[in-house]
Design brief:
Layout (H helix, E strand, L loop, with lengths): L3 H11 L5 E7 L4 E6 L3 H11 L19 E4 L6 H11 L5 E7 L4 E6 L4 H10 L5 E2 L7 H41 L4 H31 L5 H14 L3 H26 L12 E5 L5 E5 L8 E4 L9 E5 L2 E4 L1 H4 L5 E3 L4 E2 L4 E4 L2 E5 L7 H13 L4 H31 L4 H15 L2 H5 L2 H13 L2 E3 L2 H6 L5 E5 H5 L5 E7 L5 H13 L4 H10 L7 E6 L3 E6 L2 E6 L1 H6 L5 H12 L3 E6 L4 E8 L6 H10 L3 E5 L4 H11 L3 E3 L4 H14 L3 E5 L5 H6 L2 E5 L5 H6 L2 E3 L5 H37 L4 H20 L18 H7 L1
Parallel strand pairs: 17-24, 17-26, 24-25, 26-27, 27-28
Antiparallel strand pairs: 1-2, 3-5, 3-6, 4-5, 7-8, 7-9, 9-15, 10-13, 10-15, 11-12, 11-14, 16-28, 18-23, 19-20, 20-21, 21-22, 22-23
Helix pairs in contact: 5-6, 5-8, 6-7, 6-8, 7-8, 7-12, 8-27, 10-14, 11-12, 12-26, 12-27, 14-26, 14-27, 17-18, 21-26, 26-27
């Protein structure tokens, strides 16, 4: 099942069955999701088999917003250090396809083979965590509900956490006050210690749980270091400082977690773009407000000016202008008329529209964007992998240095044992790797979200980082540099002949073909002829058929040349058209050419500037097209492209990419994700002109340009350069600040107060720096639009 014809066959086979609630087809993945009663499902499978297909269950099938896999809630996983620990625990296992971490919701989504799940859960438990399955979170609507419940709990948890930490800060302040002003008597000291202990318990109970679990496993993470440092400070009599450090640390951790959530959830605002209800045409002709989750494919939906589009669909009635910025990043509203596509989450600014639903709510373009970004967030960028490896060495090394300071400084520097131990504890707090570990994921996720808001769907941190390395970009012509909508610009009778009769003959053959050039000829001629008989497609050449008893061919230069019908005069005429970038189609009978039709594809308005932008970045542009070389060179000259190669089949494009990689280095490829799939796969980074997100484009490429604007390729390179710069700024900041305070700790000028500010201050600094990537990318068209209010319309009926 890989085309709409087969989808239609299966739909017809299932139509008579009762109990089927919805069907979700994914032709790119060749999967079908059936939401049906238990009794209806076996009948549905039997009906599909009778239709000639062989449905096989997918072990983790979940073709919705959540994608494939199972979701587990891990209550003690709330920072990237713990994410790294879980990743390391799962790395040795085979059968895991992907991991999706949502630290804000404290959930982990595992997409794996069925036999791998028990091994994965066991590995996570051995790492000191307790994964609990989220009820219904298998990609179904129940999973979404589960996620919402988690968010609700998290909101209560955040409010409760604030009050608990405020209380801890009050107790810590009380301990400090007693330390400064109370008499030097045992009773006051015991009272101060008790107050400090309460503060440490309120602020640090979660830290201690994680720290002790890490130490029992022989792991040294930030929680283990902080637990050892605070406990040690308390035991050597620095209990007021220990209490204040733990309170400040916990507060900073909470602030940091919320800041990280902002980056990780930057794309989640898209979920709120599509309204929860749609105004659907009922069987009796009335309009009813219906939850979007229950609207079937083929239903008719109405939207008024100011309302958001609830689902993907094709306009059937009305004209209007749609603001597509939330999905494609386009700043100018796009006019819509019958036959045009509309996308969930966009805004109808003018005119009432009716459209036929073409995708379920779980499979809209908007839903697929969110799914792709969530999957991209779960991948590890090269710098992230480097930092994780570095931190795994750095933390034990610092712990060893702290032990050495505690043991050796009394001999080398004449310190007392308590002074040496205090210095070592300060060193531990300063050296916590939190700022370093968190410096990369927040930056990468911010970059991914910034791209998505601009209509650039980057499918992983690796591509976000590597785009800056591109030295050349291969460009498909049709639909990338040009509009992909050819028009008949000139036609002429060749030799003697009846102009009207020749028009009708050409229209008869062209009308039977789905080729864009044939369609342009039909639309340009505006003539009708008798239906062609014995019609036959000639792949790569044209079509043939019998019209009014005469065998005719309508094809390209190659076909006419192969039939021996090209003369010097015709060759000269064809050369003139081809130099102008026109595609020429010829009508001929068995003995001579009757007419020629020149079709041209117009260059996109943005293509010229896109090439200028790429050149400014030092990226060479090369056009690769299946059109003839003369046409390719003409279009390239208009667009400002220096190198153009024509007459390329898909295999030849693949070879061209390999040659460019040897010649220039890292090479990108832009195409439509179908004919160019081999070249897209071979390129270092494949850019698909997504046409607002076709299935094939999303699967074939590493980056999807949602509005087909070639300028977004250069914008991706610029975003990659910015992201790379911020990544290394953060790494430098984290290590630089720690280095300064480590030296201060060793020479004796740093206190534990300074240590906690150095650690958490650096963490907040790198988070804030990473969030800068989100600036200037927020799309907020909602100010102009009013939320959909279908209930009023339903009530009026």
């Amino acid at each position: 099942m890989d085309c709409s014809a087969e989808e239609s066959e299966i739909r017809r086979a299932l139509e008579p069955l009762e109990g089927i609630r919805s069907l979700g087809f994914q032709l790119g993945a060749r999967t079908l999701k059936i939401d049906a009663d238990d009794r209806a499902l076996p009948l549905a499978l039997d009906a599909i088999r009778k239709a000639g297909f062989d449905p096989q269950p997918v072990a983790t099938a979940a073709s919705t917003q959540g994608g494939q896999g199972r979701v587990f809630r891990i209550a003690t996983m709330d920072c990237s250090a713990e994410e790294a620990e879980i990743r390391r625990a799962l790395e040795p296992l085979d059968g895991i396809r992907s991991l999706g971490f949502q630290l804000g919701a404290r959930t982990l989504k595992i997409d794996a083979e069925e036999s791998t799940y028990p091994l994965a859960l066991d590995a996570i438990q051995k790492a000191g965590f307790d994964p609990q399955p989220v009820v219904g979170a298998d990609g179904s609507e129940g999973g979404q509900a589960g996620a919402s419940a988690d968010d609700h709990d998290q909101g209560h948890g955040f409010a409760g956490g604030i009050s608990r930490l405020v209380a801890a800060l009050v107790f810590a302040t009380g301990a400090e006050v007693l330390s400064f002003f109370a008499p030097d008597q045992m009773a006051w000291k015991v009272a101060g210690m008790a107050i400090a202990a309460v503060a440490i318990w309120l602020a640090g109970i979660d830290t201690y749980k994680k720290g002790v679990a890490a130490l029992l496993r022989g792991k040294l993470n930030i929680n283990a270091l902080m637990s050892v440092a605070v406990t040690g400070a308390f035991l050597i009599g620095q209990w007021p400082e220990a209490a204040m450090v733990m309170a400040l640390y916990a507060i900073a951790e909470l602030i940091e977690a919320k800041a990280v959530d902002r980056a990780r959830n930057a794309i989640k605002g898209l979920l709120e773009l599509a309204p929860e209800e749609a105004l659907v045409l009922g069987a009796n002709g009335s309009w009813f407000a219906t939850p979007v989750a229950s609207v079937a494919i083929g239903a008719t939906v109405r939207i008024k000016p100011g309302e958001r589009v609830p689902l993907d669909g094709k306009v059937t009635k009305g004209n209007g202008a749609i603001n597509q910025a939330p999905v494609t990043g386009e700043s100018i509203p796009v006019d819509k008329a019958p036959g045009d596509q509309v996308f969930a989450g966009t805004i109808n600014e003018t005119g009432e529209l009716e459209f036929e639903v073409t995708a379920l709510s779980s499979n809209t373009t908007l839903a697929r964007i969110i799914q792709a970004v969530e999957q991209a967030q779960g991948t590890r960028a090269p710098t992230q992998r480097f930092v994780d490896r570095f931190a795994s060495i750095y933390t034990p090394a610092v712990f060893a240095i702290a032990v050495a300071v505690a043991v050796l400084t009394p001999f080398l520097m004449g310190l007392t044992w308590l002074e040496a131990l205090y210095k070592a504890l300060v060193l531990l707090v300063i050296a916590c790797p939190c700022a370093l570990v968190i410096s990369t994921p927040v930056t990468v996720v911010s970059g991914l979200a910034a791209g998505a808001r601009r209509g650039i769907l980057i499918k992983g941190g690796t591509y976000l980082e590597d785009a800056r390395l591109l030295k050349a970009v291969a460009l498909d012509k049709t639909g990338t540099i040009t509009e992909g909508k050819p028009k008949l610009v000139k036609w002429q009778v060749w030799g003697a002949g009846d102009e009207g009769a020749i028009q009708q003959m050409a229209a008869s053959l062209a009308a039977r073909s789905d080729h864009p050039v044939s369609k342009a000829i039909v639309q340009g001629l505006e003539a009708q002829g008798p239906e062609a008989e014995n019609f036959k497609a000639l792949p790569g050449r044209g079509v043939e058929g019998v019209v009014n008893g005469a065998r005719l061919v309508l094809g390209n230069h190659r076909l006419i040349h192969e039939q021996g019908l090209c003369g010097p005069d015709l060759e000269a005429e064809l050369a003139i058209h081809e130099k102008q970038g026109r595609t020429v189609t010829l009508l001929a009978d068995d003995s001579r050419v009757l007419a020629l039709f020149a079709v041209a594809d117009t260059i996109r308005e943005t293509s010229k500037q896109a090439i200028v932008d790429l050149k400014a970045l030092g990226v060479t542009s090369v056009m690769l097209t299946g059109d003839n070389t003369a046409t390719a060179k003409a279009i390239a000259a208009q667009a400002g492209i220096d190198d153009a190669r024509g007459d390329l089949l898909p295999e030849a494009k693949l070879d061209a990419i390999k040659e460019m990689q040897k010649r220039y280095g890292a090479t990108g490829m832009t195409g439509d994700g179908i004919n160019d799939a081999p070249a897209l796969a071979q390129a270092d980074i494949g850019f698909a002109m997504g046409g607002a997100g076709t299935d094939t484009a999303m699967e074939a490429a590493d980056v999807v340009i949602m509005n087909d604007d070639l300028q977004r390729v250069a914008e991706t390179v610029r975003l990659s350069k910015r992201t790379h710069a911020v990544l290394w700024q953060n790494i430098t900041l984290a290590l630089g600040i720690k280095s300064v305070f480590l030296v201060m700790a060793v020479v004796g000028t740093a206190t534990m107060w300074m240590a906690v500010f150095a650690d958490m201050g650096a963490s907040l600094l790198v988070v804030g720096n990473g969030l800068r990537l989100l600036r200037g990318t927020r799309v907020e068209p909602a100010a102009k639009a009013q939320p959909a209010q279908p209930k009023e319309h339903a009530h009026s009926h």
